[in-house]
Amino acid sequence: MLKNIIYVILVLACYSATAHAGQVRCRVVHIIDGDTVVCLTAQQKNLRIRLANIDAPELGQAYGQRAKQYLSSLVGGKYVRVTIRAKDKYKRFIGILYRQNKEINLAMVSAGLSWVYRPYRQVKKTYQQAQTSAQQQKRGLWAAKQPIAPWQYRQQQMIKKLH
Fold first, then answer.
1. Mean pLDDT, to the nearest integer, of 22-33?
2. Start-end of H helices in the chain
3. Whether 20 contacts 87, CB under 8 Å
4. Is residue 11 situated within a structural domain?
5. Which of 6, 32, 78, 133 might form a disulfide with 36, Cβ 3.0–4.6 angstroms?
6. From CA 96, how far away is CA 93, in angstroms rounded?
7. Active-site positions?
């Protein structure tokens, strides 16, 4: 009996770990910021999608509003295909957005409106190459003298709140 219960628990754990992998087609109904959107599926379910491999400036940070506007111009109100990779601790799906075969996450880096963010998963070389190109050509946030990475900005904001 105990073996059966353990087996069921293991099967359910394995299923829930992989249940979020795959692809979904949905319409972007809300742009939260430069790296997070809300999509509406055909089943009328809202999915909060955090763009994998990138970290855009926070809204209160330099270029944060610009990143949000650019992402909105790419996918706002449009149908996208999302390759879902995982779910994060905030219950957002981590995924790569595609609009007419254009990889939107990569487009954000190429435009100089987000950083390559390695902690989410192994990042393809194309992301690093796109960031290097944006830096060299001073596109987007790379036009600033000393751009502050979003994770550094968040840390600074946390320290300010403590004092």
1. 97
2. 2-18, 64-75, 104-110, 125-136, 150-162
3. yes
4. no
5. 32
6. 10
7. 50, 58, 92
